[in-house]
């Protein structure tokens, strides 16, 4: 979704019910949620068009510097909300700045 100058993505992670330690169970569910959210962001970015009418995915195949920039950008996403359900599954909301993203993709 989109609000202001930001794009928001949801990630979901399942808790391992076999794990006895509540803190570890919640922590691993949150890490899984963050990874699924980042995967959604990467998929979104790869489908975007650059100035030369090629997709980011096409540009990443040729441009190692761009690939590093995109990876660093995704690693730096902001976690704005984390929620757990009664089974300790986690849902996170991640956000990225549209302005910063466009700067990375079109230097």
In which range does the helix fraction lie? 40-55%
For the biggest sheet, the summary is:
4 strands, antiparallel
Number of strands: 4
Low-confidence stretches: none
Q: Could you give the distance between the termini?
A: 25 Å
Shape: elongated
Summed over residues and divided by their number, the pLDDT gives a mean of 91
| Alpha-beta content class | alpha+beta
**How many helices in DSSP terms?**
4
Order of helices and strands: EEHHHEEH
β-strand amount: 15-25%
Radius of gyration, taken over Cα atoms and rounded to an integer in Å: 16 Å
Arrangement of strands in the largest sheet: 1-2-4-3
- Counting copies of identical and different chains, the oligomeric state is single chain
Question: How would you summarize this macromolecular structure in one to three sentences?
Answer:
This protein has 107 residues and is of the alpha+beta class. Helices cover 50% and strands 23% of the residues.
Written overview of the protein:
- The protein is α+β, with helices and mostly antiparallel strands and 107 residues long.
- The protein has helices at residues 22-47, 56-62, 64-75, 98-105; strands spanning 2-3, 6-13, 78-84, 90-97.
- It is elongated, with a radius of gyration of 16 Å.
- Helix 1 (22-47) crosses helix 3 (64-75).
- The protein has four helices and four strands; from the N terminus they run ββαααββα.
Topology:
Elements: E1 2-3, E2 6-13, H1 22-47, H2 56-62, H3 64-75, E3 78-84, E4 90-97, H4 98-105
Antiparallel strand pairs: 1-2, 2-4, 3-4
Helix pairs in contact: 1-3
């Amino acid at each position: 979704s989109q609000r202001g100058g930001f794009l928001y993505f949801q990630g979901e992670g399942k808790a391992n019910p076999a794990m006895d330690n509540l803190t570890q169970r919640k922590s691993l569910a949150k890490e899984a949620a963050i990874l699924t959210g980042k995967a959604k962001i990467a998929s979104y970015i790869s489908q975007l068009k650059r100035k030369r009418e090629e997709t980011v995915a096409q540009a990443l195949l040729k441009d190692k510097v761009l690939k590093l920039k995109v990876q660093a950008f995704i690693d730096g996403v902001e976690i704005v909300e984390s929620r757990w359900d009664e089974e300790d599954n986690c849902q996170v909301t991640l956000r990225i700045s549209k302005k910063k993203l466009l700067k990375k993709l079109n230097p």
